[in-house]
Amino acid sequence: MRYLLLASVALVWSGPAFAQQAQVDQTETAPSEKTSSGTTADALSDVIIVTATKKGYGENLQNVPVAVTAFGEAQLDAKFVQNLQSLSYDVPNVQLEGVGTAPGYANFTIRGLGINSTIPSIDPTVGVFTDGIYLGINAGVVLDNFDLEGIEVLRGPQGLLFGRNVTGGAVVMRTTRPDFNFRASTKASVETGLKKTVSAMVTGPIAEDVLAAKLAVYYSKDEGWFRNQFDQSSFGKSRDIIIRPALSVKGGDNFRMDLRYEHGDIDGDGAPVQSHAIFPRDTFGISIDFPGYYNATWNQAIAETNIDVGLGDGVITNIMGYRQFRSRAASDIDGTPQHFFNGYFNINQEQISDELRYSGKIGAVEVTTGLYYFAQDLAYAEQRDLLGGARILSGGGTQDQTTWGAFASADWHFSNTLTLNIGGRYSWERKAVRIAPLGANGCDVNTLRCATNFIDDESWKSFTPKLGLQWQPDNQTQIYGFYTRGFRSGGYNLRNTDPGVPPGPFDQETQDSFEIGAKKQFGRSRLNIASFYNQMKNLQREINLPGPLGVSQVIRNTADATITGFEAEGQFFIVPNLVLSGQVGYVHGKYRNIQFDISGDGVINDVDRDLKLPRLSPWTYGAGLTYDQTLGSAGTATARIDFTHRDSARFTDNNAGFLSPADMLDASLTYKTADQIWRFSVYGRNLLNEVTYGGDTPLPAAFGGPGASLSPLNKGRTIGGEVALSF
User: Fold this and answer.
1) Residue 38: its pLDDT value, please?
2) d(CA 108, CA 313)
3) Which ranges constitute the DSSP H helices of 317-392?
4) pLDDT(2) > 80
């Protein structure tokens, strides 16, 4: 019934925020469209417009009092971004990693706040938003993407405008919209592992200034980057298909509705799991007797409407979204050539959301206010085949979730240089679950039917205030500071591996955050810095401990913590066609007020307090050079090289598992014809062939020997070539 009600509302208000509409209609919207000569250096110097402030227009990145890194279409092309993980090393204090136990799961970390879980009922610390809608679970996020207008990575809590589950930050993706001028483009690439990719997009008017359409399609086939030493076969195979049709309707200069649809279908191998009982950490060796599989399909529809109104020369925006995601996965969890631990996972998720907001300027006050609704139905089941099938266990359950929110934000301009930022958001959330603990015949993993014996529901309320001050002594300089609060949803554990421990509810995780920062433009160059102090309460942690079921996972509010740090990033034009970019970040975290035996030694003491926070890498830094050389009437050649570093981090809460430090070296060489129609590139990622993992969970010695672990590998060195055509 609620879905029918929202669908009716959507018929009235459906469509994207006109703020983004206005932004796209302005010449400074898409950096790649402003480029005069088409060089990469020109694209890097363009004004970068961000939409995450949810105003009736896009804002210049340098004028936004938030630590945010934004990539326009041209920058994404220059970096050969295939998915969000491609940017994992490019932003200070940010890790956009998949956990690896099954493909597609996002375990993103920003400023030391992240999760280690493939349990779909566990909410993230970094929210991911596509064309204005929140992706309700962490499955199906780290998948191939294309046809992007921009990506914005916001660091620090974003609860005022985005609600819950953004205590670490938010990642905002925008796909391209239909254009009322004809455009078409296509790309084809081949890279190491014989991954072949082709994509195409065509857009243009159907009725002049009234109706426009777009169709974008993507296909890739990966023959597998890894070599399975069990049978010498290629491993990591996948086949991806994504289709995106869209329509845009204009009603004069004051109305626009954008209707987007997306269908995706993926088939491939399971996770490339390495066991450290067999292979050293600095190798890409795998030897598994069970290749597993990964199948995922999703359908997504978004209706975004923007209407100009006279009140405050403002914009009314409504974004309604629907998404259904289904996946089936299986992996050789023990990572050995014997059948010790095979895992099977099945997810069926359906969500619907609607956000209605107004943005305008009344006197000296810019106001953004709105209402938000989100509902989600989730079903999950898993099966563990242990010790050659001698023991087969299954469990899972369902979760029904409803969230409401109301928010208001105001920028009060006291003068031309001083602005007060103030706002608040109230949220209410309810979750109802039916859970079957892991055991014999707990669930049918194929039908998602479970013999539930735990039935419960709980609701939570939260208020997210923000108070800040912004000083702009000139149009090239900004200094800002603010206080805000963030919340991560309370909830339940659908993977109840310990019948002696109830699966919930666990309480909300809260955050009080203080940040000061500065942004400075030097002609075409810019430098942005920020420092932060965060107090975390009731940290939610997934306690992973080896046990007779392979690994036991208990979700609890374990402790309070303090996280502090700083970051800086800049872009400097040494000469007009030579650009130096750089970034550095530092994070320090410390537990306080321990409430749970995190170390697993049976007592709460200094051992627990001295543990490192999971996924917190103290130092991240990097630098890159981009050089353009015009070739007269022949076109332009561009060379790019980037080096980035990330410190090691603990993976499990008891610090038994860890992630090694990594140095990433990427490079590319691109030739673009003078008419900018053709582009030819060769590129390399991870040229130092660094070994990195999605996770590192210790397993019992009975599952492979001393050092047994669940350590899914990421790809190493990748060399590729790409041809692109646009007109």
Assistant:
1) 63
2) 38
3) none
4) no
- Which of the four pLDDT bands, split at 50, 70 and 90, describes residue 28? very low
What are the structure tokens assigned to 113, written together?
Answer: 């706040």
Reported as type and span, the H/E element at residue 76 is helix 73-78
Radius of gyration of the chain (CA): 25
CB atoms within 10 A of CB 50: 23
Place of tokens 């939260």: 462
Tokens of 605: 């003491």
Stated pTM of the model = 0.93
Structure-block tokens of residue 496: 């109840």
User: Position of tokens 């069990």?
Assistant: 230
Q: Average pLDDT for residues 639-649, to the nearest whole number?
A: 97
Helix (H) or strand (E) holding 13: helix 2-13
3-state secondary structure 566-610: EEEEEEEEEECCEEEEEEEEEEEEEEECCCCCCCCCCCCCHHHHC
Preceding amide of 245 cis, omega within 30: no
Q: Which of 435, 437, 523 is nearest to 477 (CA)?
A: 523
Residue 543, amino acid: I
What sections of 79-140 are H helices per DSSP?
none
Cβ proximity of 243 and 214 under 8 Å = no
269-312 pLDDT, tens per residue? 999 999 999 999 999 999 999 999 999 999 999 999 999 999 99
CA distance 479 to 236: 47
Query: Is 718's pLDDT higher than 80?
Result: yes
Write down the pLDDT at residue 14. 34
